[in-house]
Amino acid sequence: MREPLRRGLEGGSGGGHNAASAAGEERSARGGRMVELIGLGLATLDHLMQVESFAQPVGQTKVKGFDIQGGGLTATALVAAARLGLSTELWGVAGTDRLGDWIVAGLEAEGVGLRGFRRREGMEGPLVLVFVDGETGERRFQLARWLRDADPYPLELERLDGAKCLLVDGMFPRAAVEAARYARSRGIPVVADLGGVEGKQRELVSLVDYLVTNEDCARRVAGPRRVGPAGPDDPDTACSRACTLMLGMGPRVVVATLGGRGSVYGEGESISRQPAFPVSVVDTTGAGDCFHGAFCVGVVRGWGLGETVRFASAAAAIKCQRLGGRAGLPRMMEVEAFLRERGV
């Protein structure tokens, strides 16, 4: 087994953008550690409510749990990567209200750098309401306070020069394309967390090295189910076919996460499958984000693709055993013990 990796920067307390920047720069200077992973994308505050069952009528189902945690695709992925040992920095945007303060404070507490994180006057949150099914762990989202036309500009692209990986989601397409193009020109690997490869995202797809998407996207790319002598192809076969098609769009590696069925991933002409690790699921919120953050750890550390996908799958499985996208994010020793217990 690998030795547990040293955790990233130690967190501070809440505050606005200027305080976050100063704190991050002070820690960087004191520790002498370059930022390894920069993420550009969404940060939110999640209000989570776990109910007994979605099958019961509204007003009749009991509330089993409630919590308030930081959320957002890239923000949660960076927290996951920080807990697993990487030094991280988020480029994104939030309001100057109390919700924005809580978003910043949560990220600072996890040691995520915020030099590229912008605060916008008149903007609230973003705030997301998350309803979790107590029987299955599945969730539904309601956007309560959103970004509207906010963007993360100005981008300090030169900060990518010392990084080892860039992670982007689809929230800010124009900025993501600019950052991905800059990173690629300097040989910095780009990982993308995208729920679609159509429209505005198509240019971004052509600029990433590792495309990690979900089953819904893969099924759209695969098109109608094919029918052979043995009948229609199964969903995993369709998603494998989608991986091959998406590899033709430019990425070197494509991964499609399939929830409880694991994932399929492709590189070159090879398509492989990673089964999910069985666990008692409490909440799947943030499982994909955890996967993306852990995947970036493998990219930065130079692990093989199979090892990286297996590691990310284990981290995501551990996260699913607790309510919320942040609370269950594991540390390196937890993932290593989890894999060791399963003989991996």
Description:
The protein has 344 residues and is of the alpha/beta class. The protein has a single domain, classed as Ribokinase (UDP-N-acetylmuramoyl-L-alanine:D-glutamate ligase). It is 34% helix and 23% strand. The protein has ten helices and 15 strands. Strands 5-4-1-8-9-10-13-14-15 form a nine-stranded mixed beta sheet, sandwiched between helices. A four-stranded mixed beta sheet has the order 3-2-6-7. The chain has a two-stranded antiparallel ribbon with strand order 11-12. It is globular, with a radius of gyration of 19 Å.
Could you outline the blueprint of secondary structure elements for this entry?
Blueprint: H1 17-31, E1 37-40, E2 44-51, E3 63-71, H2 73-83, E4 88-95, H3 98-109, E5 117-120, E6 127-133, E7 139-145, E8 165-169, H4 173-185, E9 190-193, H5 201-205, E10 210-214, H6 215-222, E11 227-228, E12 231-232, H7 235-247, E13 253-257, E14 263-267, E15 270-274, H8 287-301, H9 305-319, H10 332-341
Parallel strand pairs: 1-4, 1-8, 2-6, 4-5, 8-9, 9-10, 10-13
Antiparallel strand pairs: 2-3, 6-7, 11-12, 13-14, 14-15
The number of domains: 1
SSE string: HEEEHEHEEEEHEHEHEEHEEEHHH
**What Rg, in angstroms, do the CA atoms define?**
19 Å
The amount of helix comes to 25-40%
Poorly predicted spans: 1-32
Q: In summary, what is this structure?
A:
By secondary structure, the protein is of the alpha/beta class.
Characteristics:
UDP-N-acetylmuramoyl-L-alanine:D-glutamate ligase, disordered N terminus, about 350 residues, alpha/beta
